[in-house]
Amino acid sequence: MSWKIQIFKAKTKLKHVRYWLEAKVSFAMLGALRLLPMKSAMTLNAKLLQFIGPFLPRHKMVIENLTQAFPEKDNAEIKKIARGMWRNIGRLISEYIYLDQLFDYDPDSDKVGLVEVEGEDIFRRLHAEGKPCIFFTGHVGNFELLPICAATYGLEVTALFRPPNNPYIAERLLASRTTEMGHLVPSKAGAAWGLARALDNGQSVGVLVDQKFARGIVSEFFGRPVRTNPLLPKLARQFNVPVYPARCIRLPGGRFRLILEEELVLPRDDNNEVDVAQSAQMLNDVVERWVRETPEQWMWLHRRWISNSENPSK
């Protein structure tokens, strides 16, 4: 066995050990939060992430992304949004524990709870029609509540999601999300077939559209070039199904507003088929509108834009 193979195996083993330790620490922290009342746990974790977030290595990326997206904002405004983003992530992490308690919305009750829904008439109409459609959203607020809301109105949704890199955390997360949210398709090779199969079977699907996709279509986001996954427009073109934007907005007092917008009519080409490139840009425009409204509720953690070393023409 060559020394290169030995080094590779050693690195792989060390990585799995690190993943295991990270998972154990994460599960222990979440277990400790579970001992607290729901509101106290979420508030505590939000304050904790707001404090330690700026000291984490990823914070540099957050500031760079915000500066690129909002060149008109000064340094103080950028830092304020960044702190708000860390607070949002802290709440989101703790909310995984309480998803079944958080979603207290009853469409047949006048009681005001933690969740309010805008677009209820659209949900009811889609249920009555009984036809498949595509829902899309971005990493805004607690986007995990949207599939639960759809299920409340009797809509069966197969959702595409990107599992964490840590396999131990990914396994636990998939188990909990499947219980609360119905069918899930991990974002990896073959994911498109899973969503296509669901649509072919008359089920609706849900897609997060604000992630960088290395082989994606070059479009714009906040006036800068990005690569956008063409999966949603391709599915809409293949199955000729309507597309609906949905998002979650955090409200004061730990409350949420879930918004389902009317159908987004995708552009079509000369053959009257969905234009994939123009549709990808339209999706980016919708997400950008959402992010501009509540910038602290979007995840600025990842490199979304094409770097100067990349060639947008490829």
Give a structural overview.
Pfam families: Lip_A_acyltrans (PF03279). Keywords: Acyltransferase, Cell inner membrane, Cell membrane, Membrane, Transferase. GO terms for molecular function: acyltransferase activity. It is found in: Cell inner membrane. The chain is α/β, with parallel strands linked by helices. The protein has 2 domains: about 1-35; about 100-295. It is about 50% helix and about 15% strand. It has 11 helices and 9 strands. It has helices at about 5-35, 40-50, 60-70, 75-95, 100, 120-130, 145-150, 165-180, 190-200, 230-240, 275-295, and strands spanning about 115-120, 135, 155-160, 185, 205-210, 210-220, 225-230, 245-250, 255-260. Strands 1-9-8-2-5-3-4 form a 7-stranded mixed β-sheet, with helices on both faces. A two-stranded antiparallel ribbon has the order 6-7. β6 (about 210-220) and β7 (about 225-230) form a beta hairpin. α2 (about 40-50) packs antiparallel against α4 (about 75-95), α3 (about 60-70) crosses α4 and α10 crosses α11. The longest helix has about 30 residues, at about 5-35. It is globular and about 50 Å long. The model has no long low-confidence stretch (mean pLDDT about 85).
